[in-house]
Write a structure and sequence with these properties.
Blueprint (H helix, E strand, L loop, with lengths): L2 H15 L7 H12 L4 H8 L6 H6 L5 H14 L12
Helix pairs in contact: 2-3
């Protein structure tokens, strides 16, 4: 099967479904979802055919993942030091 025919078939399917997308968007989706699921960058890069330890993958094929950002913020919140509040007497 020719790569162009796959692209064309995907385009026709998307048009029939009323979705504005391109076949290449699946690479972005795949990389983003795998990273959000905790798959290590080297594995994701390998699946996409990237060399260089994953820098291209991180730079190009991942989008901001709000859920992952919220987990990161929650993790930091549990690690921050809490202030010690001492009662003041004789003021």
């Amino acid at each position: 099967m020719s790569p162009d025919s796959v692209t064309q078939r995907y385009g026709r399917l998307a048009a029939r479904l009323g979705i504005s997308t391109h076949l290449h968007s699946l690479r972005h989706y795949s990389a983003t979802e795998l990273i959000a699921a905790g798959v290590d960058i080297r594995t994701v890069a390998g699946r996409l055919g990237h060399a260089g330890g994953g820098s291209t993958t991180l730079r190009t094929y991942t989008a901001f993942v709000e859920e992952a950002d919220q987990r990161a913020a929650a993790a930091l919140a549990t690690r921050r030091p809490r202030p010690v509040i001492r009662p003041r007497f004789g003021v």
